[in-house]
User: Fold this.
Amino acid sequence: MTAPARFWPRYVAWSLDAALICVAIVPFVAARVRAAASAFDDHLLQLLIGGYTHLDRGLNEGLPALALTPRLLADPQIRATTLALAADLVRMGLPVLVGYVVAGLVYQVAAESTGWRATPGKRVLGLEVVDGQGRALGPLRALARYLASALSWLSLNLGHMMAMAPPHHLALHDRVSATRVRARSPERPLPRWALGWVLLQVLLGVVVCVALVVAFSRLALQALEAALGPIG
Assistant:
């Protein structure tokens, strides 16, 4: 007897699939992302040096800090560097986004329209995707479901959080595509390894945030010394 799949098993299944897809696209996007990230670091350093230089000049002239804003906005070098930073962000994110969307389309549509009725991540969690009558999805319905998932992302994940609501636990893309995610063993609790997997993601997020703060601090110190001379 199946029942509507709840939010957390669905999330764990999605995150497992996402990890597999990300590993698959790394060889195709890594070089471009590294090049864009290197350019981003260089442009951010230039921007910080320019900002510190303006701040130093303004303070020496006795200007309040807020009065420096028009100067910064009017500086053509600052504006050009800011635009370059935005372009670097696009160059970093776009290959990953395109690669993930294309690989995810093939991965999800192929898996959910087979006898498995599920991606590998869903299969591990004992989930399956069916239509409103409990039948297996065909390729077109699986494709429609994948395309509809964009709405759940564009809603800032509110569409995904709709799956928390009982009794049917339907996400936005489930409703749009007239599909359902069912649990084959609804009475089974979330496995311990799945809880560990979620905690690992939280830990990884914390580590990434700390690493970014440390990297920015070092870059800011480098810019400060370049603009004002050695400190200490």
Observations:
- The helical segments are 7-60, 69-74, 76-112, 120-124, 139-154, 158-161, 172-177, 192-228.
